[in-house]
C-alpha cells in the first residue's frame, strides 16, 4: 500500500494542531490520530485516506499528544501568569494558543522560544481578536521571561 506524506509548513501544522485540540475539547473520547486525520481531511480532500495510508508529521503527533498529556501542568503555568483572570474565563481559542506555545517553549528545544511566541500571535490573528492577541502576548512574554530566568 502507498503511504501519503503530509507536506505542510510548520505554521500550517500549528494550525492543524490548534484545530485538532479545539475539536478534541468537545470530543474527549476521540483518539488523537483519528482527530488529526480528520482535521487534515478538512484542510485538503487529498488527505481523506485510511489512517494506515496517511503519514502524520512527527511534529503534529508530538504536539497534540503532548498537550493532551500535559494539559494540567501547562494550565498551571498559564494560571501563574494570569493577572486578574481565572483560566476558566479564557476563551477556548486563547487557551489552546497559550497551551501550544508554552508546550513548544518547555518541551520542543529545537524551536526558538521567540518563534513559538510569534507563531502564537499569528494564530491569535486568525482565531482571536486584537484584545486577545495583546493578552496572549503579555502572558507568553511573562512565561518566556520565567523560562529565561529558569523559574518555570
What report would you give on this structure?
The protein is an all-alpha fold and 152 residues long. It has 2 domains: 4-57, no CATH class; 70-148, NusB-like (N-utilizing Substance Protein B Homolog, Chain A), CATH 1.10.940. It has 7 helices and 2 strands; from the N terminus they run βααβααααα. The chain has helices spanning 10-26, 32-43, 58-69, 71-80, 92-107, 113-127, 130-148, and strands at 4-5, 54-55. Strands 1-2 form a two-stranded parallel sheet. Helix 1 (10-26) runs parallel beside helix 3, helix 1 (10-26) crosses helix 5 and helix 6 packs antiparallel against helix 7 (130-148). The N and C termini lie far apart (46 Å).
List the topology elements.
Blueprint: E1 4-5, H1 10-26, H2 32-43, E2 54-55, H3 58-69, H4 71-80, H5 92-107, H6 113-127, H7 130-148
Parallel strand pairs: 1-2
Helix pairs in contact: 1-2, 1-3, 1-5, 3-5, 4-5, 5-6, 5-7, 6-7
Short description:
The chain has 152 residues and is mainly alpha-helical.
What's the gyration radius in Å? 16 Å
Instruction: Classify the beta-strand content into a percent band.
Output: under 5%
Helix/strand-derived category reads: mainly alpha
- Which residue ranges are poorly predicted, with pLDDT under 50 across at least 5 consecutive positions? none
CATH topology of the largest domain: N-utilizing Substance Protein B Homolog, Chain A
The overall average pLDDT, rounded, is: 87
* SSE run: EHHEHHHHH
CATH class of the largest domain: Mainly Alpha
What's the main sheet like? Answer: 2 strands, parallel
Query: How would you write the strand order of the largest sheet?
Result: 1-2
Amino acid at each position: 500500500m502507498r503511504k501519503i506524506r503530509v507536506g505542510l509548513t510548520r505554521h500550517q501544522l500549528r494550525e492543524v494542531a490548534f484545530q485538532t485540540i479545539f475539536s478534541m475539547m468537545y470530543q474527549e473520547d476521540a483518539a488523537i490520530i483519528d482527530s488529526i486525520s480528520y482535521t487534515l481531511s478538512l484542510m485538503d480532500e487529498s488527505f481523506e485516506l485510511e489512517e494506515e495510508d496517511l503519514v502524520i508529521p512527527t511534529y503534529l503527533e508530538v504536539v497534540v499528544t503532548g498537550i493532551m498529556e500535559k494539559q494540567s501542568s501547562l494550565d498551571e503555568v498559564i494560571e501563574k501568569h494570569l493577572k486578574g483572570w481565572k483560566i476558566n474565563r479564557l476563551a477556548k481559542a486563547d487557551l489552546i494558543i497559550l497551551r501550544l506555545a508554552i508546550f513548544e517553549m518547555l518541551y520542543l528545544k529545537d524551536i526558538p522560544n521567540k518563534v513559538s511566541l510569534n507563531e502564537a500571535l499569528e494564530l491569535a490573528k486568525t482565531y482571536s481578536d486584537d484584545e486577545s492577541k495583546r493578552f496572549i502576548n503579555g502572558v507568553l512574554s511573562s512565561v518566556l521571561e520565567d523560562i529565561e530566568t529558569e523559574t518555570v
